[in-house]
Amino acid sequence: MKNTNIPYKIYLSEDELPKAWYNVRADMKNKPAPLLNPGTLQPMGFEDLRPVFCDDLIRQELDDDTPYFEIPAEIRSFYKMYRPSPLVRAYCLEEKLQTPAKIYYKFEGNNTSGSHKLNSAIAQAYYAKKQGLKGVTTETGAGQWGTALSMACAYLGLDCKVFMVKCSYEQKPFRREVMRTYGASVTPSPSDTTNVGRKILAEHPGTTGSLGCAISEAVEAATSVPGYRYVLGSVLNQVLLHQSVIGLEAKAALDKYGVKPDMIIGCAGGGSNLGGLISPFMGEKLRGEADYEFIAVEPASCPSFTRGKFAYDFCDTGMVCPLAKMYTLGSGFIPSANHAGGLRYHGMSPILSQLYHDGLMEARSVEQTAVFAAAEQFARCEGILPAPESSHAIRVAIDEALKCRETGEEKTILFGLTGTGYFDMVAYERFNDGTMTDHIPTDEELAPGFAGLPNVPEK
Amino acid sequence: MKNTNIPYKIYLSEDELPKAWYNVRADMKNKPAPLLNPGTLQPMGFEDLRPVFCDDLIRQELDDDTPYFEIPAEIRSFYKMYRPSPLVRAYCLEEKLQTPAKIYYKFEGNNTSGSHKLNSAIAQAYYAKKQGLKGVTTETGAGQWGTALSMACAYLGLDCKVFMVKCSYEQKPFRREVMRTYGASVTPSPSDTTNVGRKILAEHPGTTGSLGCAISEAVEAATSVPGYRYVLGSVLNQVLLHQSVIGLEAKAALDKYGVKPDMIIGCAGGGSNLGGLISPFMGEKLRGEADYEFIAVEPASCPSFTRGKFAYDFCDTGMVCPLAKMYTLGSGFIPSANHAGGLRYHGMSPILSQLYHDGLMEARSVEQTAVFAAAEQFARCEGILPAPESSHAIRVAIDEALKCRETGEEKTILFGLTGTGYFDMVAYERFNDGTMTDHIPTDEELAPGFAGLPNVPEK
Predict the structure, then answer these.
(1) Are strands B293-299 and B228-230 parallel, antiparallel or unpaired?
(2) Per-residue pLDDT reduced to its tens digit, B142-156
(3) pLDDT higher for A171 or B263?
(4) I need a surface site. Which of A10, A212, A264, B455 has the fewest CB within 10 A?
């Protein structure tokens, strides 16, 4: 064990919980492109978005200038039930890898949703409640977001309707029961309960679903019943704003011990965790106050950053949502059925897409058997059984630490451990049995998704 | 929300992690009765126990006098990966119940084993490793202990063989995969891999197993192969010693804020959590320094304290283990198949049995539908999805808080939240569907277990 004064886990006190979320857009020279109306191709304003989203959340979504948004007291009270989350020094992993690197991870899995998703779920549910709504609808992939939203809605007494990507619904029957325990209704998507679901089922019988498809159904369910709005667990600017609490806490914890990370690594599906984790550090980089290396890690089977196009695209399969400019594989893209866990969205946060496009961060793709090997190694020395999503970041953190062993560099690596894998045991079982496979889509397999991109003229 | 200066979660620093376990036997006037050789009925000494247990653990088991045992540095290092665990003020539950009572819970579920079991697993694995053994064998009921032991063995590089009670093995297939991810082998019990398992299967075809039966198999597996010993997650004195870390931390956290609980509540199966939680408080009571009300909560379907006999009994169904004097339903007792989760052991810790016999603590039994109703209520306001076992304590804590609402008493209630219910979703599903039932055994159903008690003359 290395001799050091840094504890295994750095906890902030509840008084040190951030009092405001940080909006990285305020420090970006090139702002993320606006959402467009899919019919008129005009930027969507407050009134355009009101049928779908809650008012206060639209204000957050559209605000590229305000650097800080105060966290309402009610949300801070809820945060105190599971936050501040620990920043952990991975002493055991470092020793196992025999690396001179110093590895830290911000662990967001110590709450029943099993991930960081709760940070934005309570915020979105709070604003829905404040607006006097009856309930919210949403989609969920791996199930963390749906669970998080169910918890937040149970706490506030809101109705919660979740459309769950069918393959996850089948792989994770127990996630459904957690959501039901919190009083939510859960429907496998595509379903025959919406027009868009019936249309997708007719066109693609036997489909295992996709996030893009579940989003379409949830939006339809929200807009066809009075008193409901749609909420989303990733991709949107507002979500990255709420998730900045991760990075703000991580930075405060590191600052306490005078530690500055060289490299910050996070898994990226829609970008909620990565965007939240890196936001305050990226702000320093954008303001020229510090430099960091940022690495987004995505599955090779759903490679939006590394093989996608930076273009306006539909956020959903049913094409009922606004268009967003982002790195995308096309809204028709559905990852191979052997893909485990989340990180299966065809697009990527417009904020992160712009930052990546501007060369402010890197991206890597990794294959899932390598990811589960990292997960197992991590679990056996650090004790925590990681979510498959989080394990993408673990894979690259281990790879970088092993490079340090070769070069002798004492880099400080920070990664986001977004959640736990307790509901991913079907995937772990496949890995334990040696039956897990990898799938890297060929260019031919990616072509149809790209062919479906809408034709939006450059300004 | 009540106005108070006590945070939602009281965390001790890693420096405040207890440096020694507390042995409550040192302060007991009436010591727990010694283990007896089932053949000779003579007390078993160090040499008698060596074929089954690790040497250092036997020393701890037999020592009724030493009040503190130093926690080895290696175990403290491991503890630091998930301890100190939080002591939580249940502000939201208090508000929901509209009670003047102040409710605290010591939450032991924030580790991958999902419970407090890891506290003793790492200690037992450490002493096995120190003795140069190849591996250990054990039984597991609900699966927490097996998972905990798998994690500890993976960390130390020990082989781990787990016999899992068959009904849990079937109800909780994913628990098996967690254990396998940590490198353990898992066998449903009764199995045809041991003599005693084959005998039980022949006598009771179709049995869903019991802890007592799995213990017999694990002991046989340990004693029939060189380099192995048997380890146990509850009941034994050594386990309560290790688990005292729960109570020591809880007491230190409360002392920081000058809080003295009136009432301490814990679920009781074999007694590991309850014994650990109450130990330092019971020590004060035994020494006449303070008074507390202690309540053991057990399932009505397996009521060792409330309907059992205080007598010498076999610890296992196969009658290969030493005899222990305890509250017991008889080693042949198997709870009804509708019983969910752990707390299904026929006996009870000899230490707790003696304390209960001496009037130093109370016991109550509760029915499982009432337990799951408390679990759901707790989950929806406190956020954490509790284990069925832990929810027994929640049930009584809520009942006591509601009594305070009637009387106006501002009692301070502390209960042990031993773990999370992520692997108990089959049981939650039954509760959500309204198909969960209760079973209180009749006197006739209890009679065969009592009839099988060994005939041990009183000294």
Answers:
(1) unpaired
(2) 789 999 999 999 999
(3) B263
(4) B455
Asked, as a colleague might, if the bond just before B72 is cis with ω within 30 of 0, I would say: no
Dihedral, A280, A282, A287, A292 alpha carbons, nearest 10? 120
CA distance B214 to chain A (A): 24
Average pLDDT, integer, range A185-210: 93
User: Which of B96, B79, B416, B54 is CA-nearest to residue B250?
Assistant: B416
Query: How many A-B residue pairs are in contact by the CB < 8 A criterion?
Result: 127
Highest mean pLDDT: which of A81-95, A159-173, B1-15, B171-185?
A81-95
**ipTM for the whole complex:** 0.92
Partners of A380 on chain B (C-beta within 8 Å) are 151, 154-155, 182-183
B430: chain A residues, CB-CB within 8 Å = none
Q: Who among A151, A174, A379 is closest to B182 (CB)? A: A379
Record the tokens describing residue B195, joined without a space: 């003599």
What is the average per-residue pLDDT within B98-112? 97
Chain A residues with CB-CB distance to B112 below 8 A: 379, 383-385, 420, 422
CA angle A357, A362, A363 (to 5 degrees): 100
Residue B92: list chain A partners with CB under 8 A.
81, 155
In sequence order, what E strands does A32-158 have?
68-70, 87-89, 102-107, 135-140
Going by pLDDT thresholds of 50, 70 and 90, the confidence category of residue A4 is low
Q: Please give the DSSP secondary-structure letter assigned to residue B45.
A: -
AA letter at B403: K
CB B145 within 8 A of CB B239: no
Residue from A148, A128, A111, A147 nearest B8 by CA? A111
Contacts by B253-260, CB closer than 8 A, 24 or more apart = B253/B10, B253/B11, B253/B12, B253/B84, B253/B87, B254/B10, B254/B87, B254/B104, B254/B414, B256/B10, B256/B12, B257/B5, B257/B6, B257/B10, B259/B6, B259/B102, B259/B104, B259/B412, B260/B290, B260/B412
